[in-house]
Amino acid sequence: MSGFQIFCGISGLVGAVANVLVIVISKIKKDSGNQDVQSTFLHICGSSILICLCMTATMSQEIRYDTAVIKIPHGFLAKSSPNFLTGIYAIQTSSYTYILFNISIMFLNRLNVICNKNTMSTIFSSKNMKIFTALAVIISLIQAAFVVLTAVDTNFLWERLNKTTTAIDDLFEKQEMSASFLQNQQIQIANQKQIDADMGIVPVANSNTTTNFKEQNRNQAFTEIILRQKPVEPKKEEMNEVDVEESKNMTTSQMRGMIKQGQEASTIAMPQ
User: Fold this and answer.
1) Cα angle at 114 between 112 and 116, to 5 degrees?
2) 0.85 cut: is pTM over it?
3) In this structure, are residues 107 and 42 in contact, taking their beta carbons and an 8 Å threshold?
4) In this structure, what are the phi and psi dihedrals at residue 124, rounded to the nearest 5 degrees?
């Protein structure tokens, strides 16, 4: 049992018992001078007892959507037929309307006592008070009829509720899919950045600096390779005097040209 059901049950029972005690006390101690007021007060207590019993039996939760009022019962009559529950709600609403009118009638009765020698005394006399009471009963019955006539089929409400619930579930599912997709994208981007950092790849924003840096590294690496290589000395018996003479006569510019050709060849061979 939820807290809402406990609250409805306790408040309904306390209200019904309190109004019953008021009726018992008014019956025990009668005041012949204020019978009209006492009668009106008894009507109010009786209507309040009906409201408390209906609230305890249904424990209805009210939901308002625009001009519509939806009652969701949680009491021991929650599994009753929709027409029966509509009748209970009609009794509850008509009793509340009757209480409002009886409170006004009670004040009009006191106004009749105050204005004993005035024209107001004839309008709100004891005979006319009965007419006002009958008018209150008629208006309360009209209110109950409105409740019954404006009741909507329960199956229609369930269909609308199921459609709305399905649409909301689809929306939540799409939002969850979008969030998971974005999360996966962020994870992939973070992993790619980590891989680039491990490989020593600099972001594209510094492309010029990166190109120069790579070129310097290649030149330095090629120079180190040339320096580390040991020159192969040809066999003395295979060397001709012409080759020795050509090597002696080789100029510095020719040597630089050969080094440049070797750098270009290594640049083509190395991956970008």
Assistant:
1) 65
2) no
3) no
4) -105, 45
Per-block average pLDDT, block size 10, for the chain (272 residues)?
A: 82 91 85 75 90 88 75 82 88 92 83 70 74 90 91 70 56 67 79 75 50 57 55 48 50 59 53 46
Phi, psi of 45 (to 5 degrees): -65, -40
Q: What is the structure's pLDDT at 206?
A: 46
What are the C-alpha distances in Å from 72 to residues 18, 49, 79, 146, 164? Answer: 27, 21, 11, 19, 17
Per DSSP, the three-state class of 95 is helix
Q: Cβ-count burial of 4 within 10 angstroms (0-12 exposed, 13-18 middle, 19+ buried)?
A: exposed
**What pLDDT is stored for residue 75 in this prediction?**
81
Write down the domain spans for the chain: 3-152, 155-201, 203-272
* Rounded Cα–Cα distance for residues 56 and 63 (Å): 18
Q: Give me the pLDDT at residue 59, please.
A: 86
Residues 6+ apart with CB under 8 A from 45: 19, 20, 22, 23, 26
Q: How far is CA 215 from CA 24, 259, 268, 270, in A?
A: 107, 15, 12, 11
At residue 33, the 3 state secondary structure works out as: helix
